[in-house]
Amino acid sequence: MSDAPSDSLRLPSIDGLLAFEAAARLGSLERAAETLHVSASAVGKRIATLEERLGQPLLTRNPLRLTAAGKEYLAQVQTALSLLAAVPLHRREQQRLTRLSISSPPTFARQVLVPALPRFEAAHPDIELELLLSTPYLDQPAPPSEVEIFAGAIPAGGEVLLDDVVTPMAAPALLARLPALHTPADLAQAPLLRTPLQPWSPWLRAAGLDWPEPSQGTRFVDLGLTLEAAACGQGVVLGRPSLAATYLRGGTLKRLFDLAVPAAMPYGLVRHAESDAARAFSRWLVAHCAALSADVGHA
After folding, report:
1. Please, which residues have CB within 8 angstroms of residue 7's CB and are 6 or more apart in sequence?
2. Nearest in space to 216 (alpha carbons), one of 200, 240, 202, 204
3. Rounded to a whole number, what is the distance in angstroms from the first to the last CA of the chain?
4. Class of residue 113 by CB neighbours under 10 A (exposed 0-12, middle 13-18, buried 19+)
5. pLDDT confidence of 92, banded at 50, 70, 90?
6. How far from the centroid of its chain's Cα atoms is residue 278's Cα?
7. For residues 30 and 67, is the Cβ–Cβ distance under 8 A?
8. DSSP 46-67
9. Structural domains in the chain plus CATH codes
10. What is the mean pLDDT of residues 96-106?
11. Half-sphere exposure of residue 109, counting CA atoms within 13 Å on the CB side?
12. Whole-model pTM?
């Protein structure tokens, strides 16, 4: 006796069986569609094809209800699908991902965090990051996140990321248009880019210059925009080497003097969740920032 399927067998498609089982169990084509990630019309067509193959209706429409044949068939289908689902080769191993939300000021995210993310992802493929931007200068609270990166005083339990310095930088194109800048006093001949996030006064005092804070030109309420404006040759920026690392390495910006002073605010990190993922990210970012600081050097 042959074990091959008989020509008289009317085997339905698995898609049809799944559509029928989901619609019967959930009582709605729409809910079945959501479960199967297809449209409601696709579910309806699959059930109709199944009913045509079997030669009898399984569900009534408007309202959706099982027929007598449908009730009997549903129990048999659920048993068959359970047996198929139990076959080891039918189960795809899925990596369990842990999602971790991070909030960060825009410039830190662009200049420090995003370029280094591939290294974190390679070391922690089980952690999926969600990066949110905060706007601290506008006095708006950071979006809810499990790890918050910020610029300001480090609270108890927080960690320092970059206790930075600032020093004047400019684009070679701007320097070519200006008289030579040999000493800090020569900056009198240069446009100074200004931002409320990093005043010039501390550096000017350290340089022995009793000048007022610059009051002319565009006012940038973002450290990244001041760096970009400087790279475009619009003026001299009082920049952090850590944030300007890509510009400095590429030669888009050049440090003008050895003199540097502490930045207005350090960058720090605080965890709002004590999960393994949050701790792993924190350790990685602290180490990355330490390596970045050593690379760019502090004058």
Report:
1. none
2. 200
3. 89
4. buried
5. low
6. 14
7. no
8. HHHHHHHHHTS-SEETTTTEE-
9. 14-90 (1.10.10.10), 98-163+266-296 (3.40.190.10), 165-262 (3.40.190.10)
10. 89
11. 16
12. 0.63
